[in-house]
TrEMBL record:
Component of the F(0) channel, it forms part of the peripheral stalk, linking F(1) to F(0). The lineage of its organism: Bacteria, Bacillati, Actinomycetota, Actinomycetes, Kitasatosporales. It comes from the Bacteria. The chain crosses the membrane at residues 12-30. This is ATP synthase subunit b. InterPro entries: ATP_synth_B-like_membr_sf (IPR028987), ATP_synth_b/b'su_bac/chlpt (IPR002146), ATP_synthase_B_chain (IPR050059). F-type ATPases have 2 components, F(1) - the catalytic core - and F(0) - the membrane proton channel. F(1) has five subunits: alpha(3), beta(3), gamma(1), delta(1), epsilon(1). F(0) has three main subunits: a(1), b(2) and c(10-14). The alpha and beta chains form an alternating ring which encloses part of the gamma chain. F(1) is attached to F(0) by a central stalk formed by the gamma and epsilon chains, while a peripheral stalk is formed by the delta and b chains. HAMAP family: ATP_synth_b_bprime. It is a single-pass membrane protein.
Length: 167
């Protein structure tokens, strides 16, 4: 017996055992394997479809976020522009108010200076009149008692002096 001349009974027994195992595998094990492979395929395909759906949803959310971000940037730009315009208007109003206050102060100061000048001029005229009367009294050797006449002469002199200055 050898490999070239096998024992027929053992060969038949081996062949029957092989066919029994093959039939058991074909009837029982292969359908289970097919079923498990189908379930895995279905799970993989379902996961891919869910992943695709999640990706589409993520893209929609991202697009909405981008649109919202763009709108927020636009709104911020408008707010900045409005604030700039409001600030410019406020600055112009404050400048105008300051200019008006300055002009009012200059006008009040001018009026005050003119009033002070008139008062000083009147006081100086009186002082000059008193000094002139005293000097004239010293020159004449007797005091001048007619102050109204001296005042008239001094007013005439000052009027003539002002007329000379203006021409």
């Amino acid at each position: 017996m050898g490999p070239l001349k096998p024992n027929v009974i053992e060969l038949i027994a081996g062949l029957i055992t092989f066919l029994a195992v093959f039939a058991a595998l074909a009837k029982v094990l292969l359908p289970r394997i097919d079923k498990t492979l189908a379930e895995r395929e279905e799970a993989t395909t379902g996961a891919l479809e869910r992943a695709g759906a999640v990706q589409l949803d993520a893209q929609r959310v991202r697009a909405a976020y981008q649109a919202e971000l763009t709108a927020a940037r636009h709104e911020a730009s408008q707010i900045r522009q409005a604030a700039l315009e409001e600030g410019t208007a406020l600055l112009a109003a404050v400048r105008a108010e300051g200019q008006k206050a300055r002009e009012d102060m200059v006008a009040a100061a001018t009026v005050q200076l003119e009033a002070d000048r008139v008062i000083a001029e009147a006081e100086l005229r009186e002082g000059v009149l008193a000094l002139a009367a005293e000097l004239a009294g010293r020159i004449l050797g007797e005091p001048l008692t007619d102050l109204d006449r001296a005042r008239a002469v001094a007013d005439e002199f000052f009027t003539a002096a002002e007329a000379d200055l203006q021409s």
